[in-house]
């Protein structure tokens, strides 16, 4: 098993076009890099073209998105789709493999507060060091892939274990407006704020739901009640 290809692009921010110094320090991304980058919708289209090039799609290979927690897809991607006026949040992004959850269930509980990221701690268990820069999207993805290879070599099952599902409260415009104000205030790390406000909430997928394919039942469709 090996990494066969990678995709990378910076994204030009539209809501807050000037990078906060904290963002630059954390990620190493410069203002110049994002000023010349395409906007999110164009990057997403390019990403889908890259997937199609590798036959990842309806008529090609099966695939799943893997994260080291729920936030990248459920929180940040969902909110970005809303900000970028996507008609719907792409269905195949609504369920994913949270490898951190699998690691803690099948391998060992992670130690918090040791100055290491979750990815670093999981790699360390296998005697591996993090390659690249922390919080760089591509480097994080490559290191998650390295971890997945080790888990599969140890015959640990990697499967869809989390998904987004639509909440019954449909008063989305009000909640999204409140969430946007919260993010502008800096409440981006408050899990409870996001969980209350995002249109699609997070829930776990059981092994039985995965094996039966029940997790694919679209209980998050925007036209569910039509």
UniProtKB/TrEMBL annotation:
- Molecular function terms, GO-annotated: 3'-5'-RNA exonuclease activity; nucleic acid binding
The record, for Gene3D superfamilies, names: Ribonuclease H-like superfamily/Ribonuclease H
Q: Could you tell me the keywords of this UniProt record? A: Exonuclease, Hydrolase, Nuclease
In this record, what's one Pfam family?
Answer: RNase_T
Which Gene Ontology cellular-component terms appear in the entry? cytoplasm
Q: Which InterPro entries match?
A: 3-5_Exoribonuclease, ERI-1_3'hExo-like, Ribonucl_H, RNaseH-like_sf, RNaseH_sf
Residues in domain Exonuclease?
A: 2-157
The UniProt entry, under CDD domains, shows: ERI-1_3'hExo_like (cd06133)
What is the protein name given in its UniProt record? Exonuclease domain-containing protein
